[in-house]
């Protein structure tokens, strides 16, 4: 039997649906149906009615939510609604207040609920950085070209305007990864080194050339990634976690007490040094590139050892003399 609702009841459901879909927690049709006590068919109909009314409904997989930029939603909340730039500013102000009272926590939670908190929560309080970051953020979101005015390069020790396509923030939003039009390459720019940032009315035209920049567990960075699989003993696992705490979340404890680690690295040099330094506590498997690199390094070490065996007696005397002189100098330093 079809449920007959009054206009007031229908309106109440519409309002409750709006509240559910603006709580910054995308919901599936089943979850909405359960919370509003109605069928999946009715849920789809109500969602479609909201879309026709002007709300911007977005999907994350099979889950729905209302974009806070929806025209109608913005009109209703125009006196308390913040733009993304204003939200960044509000977050900066809250970050300068060393207060963890319920009132301040509530304000932070409100920002987290309605705005891109993953972006604004990491913004530093530096005024120049915040201003530049705000423009670059819009450039990333709208896929537009920006000019980094008077950007200072520590390599050339010169300042110049850099025309770029910004696409990725790094290092706590202190740096931005961009495709530079003049050089045709991807570069990482420190945001505070630009006097100002200008947003151009020009869309990206090299999106297919954008390459992300990664930093691996062994503190090497680059655009290319190699996948490696290791089995670590307790010592190797402990040392790696001390150096890179996030490695702990990637490890799986095996039945024999060792740890399985599968990760991607930007350079074989970093992980190679780690494995060679703790070779008796690490096993490598199903990692052909790393295995080939290790074989090359071991062969190179063997050649150096062989050369060391062919040192002449004269060279051995010079080496011994240098060692003794160094020891004498250290003894003198200890006695002063």
TrEMBL record:
Residues 13-59 form the Helix-turn-helix type domain. It comes from the Bacteria. InterPro entries: CBASS_pafABC_assoc_protein, HTH_11, WH-like_DNA-bd_sf, WH_DNA-bd_sf. This is Transcriptional regulator. It comes from Alloprevotella tannerae.
